[in-house]
Description:
alpha+beta, globular, 3-stranded antiparallel β-sheet, two-stranded antiparallel sheet
Amino acid sequence: MFTLDSDNVTRELPSSVSVPRNGEEGYKSLSMSTELAVSFFRSAQFKLFKTRYHSSSGIDWTVDMYRLENEPLILAYARNVDSLPFWLDRRRCRDVSDDRRYSEFFLSRQPYSSWRP
């Protein structure tokens, strides 16, 4: 996995995968070797591809840009709208906090591209 740090330099991070919680909706992340993560990912029935961006402080906002079947979906998590990054079009933002369709659990099973307008 690679991420863009505050100096706009890519650096390698430990591999992790998200796995279903026992009997609950939602996922938890597990850190593991790259080889084990790849093996685990290949065997998974449902997959979700995204790139996550964080504010430089790490607490103001997080933006997930989804790929493949969930593209062009972008979900932002912020303490307040004013703290969102400048490159995010606020005119197209709306609160989807209570809409379960935007959960990773749902998106992995019913991708955004399959939704009817």
